[in-house]
Amino acid sequence: MAGFFTNKGFQPKRQSSHPLPPGQYETTDFPVLTAGPTPRITLSQWEFRLEGLVAEPVKWSWAEFNQLPMQDFNPDIHCVTKWSKFDTHWRGVSVDTLLEHVRLKPEAQFVTEFSYGGYTTNVPLADLRGGRAFVGVQFEGQPLAAEHGGPARLVVPHLYFWKSAKWVQGLRFTAADEPGFWERGGYSMYGDPWKEQRYRDDDEPAASRL
Amino acid sequence: MSRITWQQATVTGIKAETSHVKTFTLRLPQFTPHLAGQHYDLRLTAEDGYQAERSYSIASPPEQTGEIELTVEIITDGEVSGYLNEGVGIGDQLEVRGPIGGYFVWAGAANAPPLLLVGGGSGVVPLMAMLRHRRGVGLRTPAALLFSVRTAEDVIYRAELEALARADSTFTLLLDYTRQAPPGWAGYQRRLDAPMLAEVVAHFGPAQPQVFACGPTGFVEAAANGLLAAGLPPELILTERFGPTTG
Ligand SMILES: Cc1cc2nc3c(=O)[nH]c(=O)nc-3n(C[C@H](O)[C@H](O)[C@H](O)COP(=O)(O)OP(=O)(O)OC[C@H]3O[C@@H](n4cnc5c(N)ncnc54)[C@H](O)[C@@H]3O)c2cc1C
Q1: Which protein residues are within 6 Å of ligand 1, measured from CB?
Q2: Calpha distance A130→A78 (Å, rounded)
Q3: pTM
């Protein structure tokens, strides 16, 4: 590879037995990244909603939510702050399962994930279907800790982890792709780690993604 | 060229801040004015094409144009900080892109609320950019920095912070030594806790400060929880966590 920039004498020190997306390094730690204090949500107040472009909105209490069929999933996690964590163990409800409870309007193409504490993030609806996204309530056999988004966080492992909203409160279906919290601050609208879509300038023109 | 593509910066200065913290001055072919609190990504490439990327907060204020300063804590065995420490000299080139981040920033409006900065270790870096900006534009927004360090040797930017505290009666420097305080020290010498934060917040009187807290994860978690306990509303508390979970 002639002609590309190199840093003389730079040698890798981090090794990973897993394929890493560009710019990422492996950690066995579980770093916490949040824009503000950790919200504490009591289970008696907790609810999860599906709203926006649906025939009828639904909502579940914590007890109702835990009656839904749960499954285990073991994703690799890629955070935009450069760490990747492989083979994590979660339990939760697949978004496919949740979607069985609503009738989506045809123009619903995008989703705003909204959270306790006011956080939002956007994702194409298609990316939450087909067994690729979950609402996780357990991590490594324990209830999900508040720092990591407990009682429940969305987990969309094929995108950078900021798309996996902590303290998630619901999904709002929209016709247009509306930037969420970090996206308004210049982060990628889509966030594919394998294409290294960290910031808005890294995004492909929308047309070429379809 | 779009705003945050990679560029090759030239190292024009290296300054030891403490025995394991260094500031690198980078001259940028494409300087974009930043906001105090933003960061740059830095990328290293090995001969075989292997790349490592890390984020570093900008230490210099927006008033310092054409170049940026990054202050890096050298982690033993750290892949990127280790190379910056051992492999980089004046005149070398480093690939960076930025400025990045639109949230943990202090724009410094004249009518802004008082500023409470809470830093642990290298978490002081973006906070220093805010203080330098505040001084650079001549704002007298009441400000305090609660800076938690292990020992006296670990006070990054010590001379500048002490000079600022002497010259500006609206700025208060509060050092907190968690491992060993210097002889005769009458200030804080314990890990940050809720009573300490309540005391620091009370320092501003009835006005509620805007808080920026930055440092290792455990530190920021303790700071944010303590500030909530002290009665500050969550929307006044902005946090940036770097480093591992055990901090
Ligand atoms: C937005 C943002 C801004 C940042 N700004 C700064 C800054 O201004 N100055 C600065 O020095 N760092 C900053 N960091 C941290 C920086 O990006 C790197 O994580 C750090 O330099 C370590 O990288 P490394 O390659 O040297 O070590 P690595 O090879 O990644 O790690 C070596 C070992 O050190 C541990 N480790 C990693 N980071 C830290 C840490 N911060 N403290 C203690 N142990 C650690 C790892 O878990 C690992 O075991 C920032 C991080 C973020 C996300």
Answers
A1: A 13-14, 25, 29, 81; B 39, 54-57, 71-73, 75, 77-82, 122, 125, 240, 242-244
A2: 20
A3: 0.85
| Tokens of residue A119, six digits | 């956080």
Cα A175 to middle of ligand 1, angstroms: 40
Report residue B87: phi and psi, to 5°.
-100, -5
Q: Is A142 on the interface with B (CB under 8 A)?
A: no
- The DSSP secondary-structure symbol of B184 reads T
Task: Check if the beta carbon of residue B242 is closer than 8 Å to that of residue B232.
Answer: no
Structure tokens at A112: 């705003």
Q: Label residue B179 left, alpha or beta by phi (over 0 means left) and psi (-120 to 50 means alpha).
A: alpha
Give the total residue count for chain A. Answer: 210
Which whole-number Å values give the CA distances from B214 to B66, B121, B137, B187, B231, in the listed order?
26, 9, 23, 21, 19
Q: What is the pLDDT of residues A165-192, one digit of tens each?
A: 999 999 999 999 999 999 998 899 999 9
Nearest chain B residue (CA) to A118: B235
Closest residue (by CA) to atom 39 of ligand 1?
A: B243
What is the DSSP code (8-state) at residue B113? Answer: P
Blockwise average pLDDT, block size 10, chain B, 247 residues: 79 97 98 96 94 94 97 93 96 96 88 95 97 96 97 97 98 97 96 95 94 92 91 91 55
Query: What ipTM was reported for this prediction?
Result: 0.84
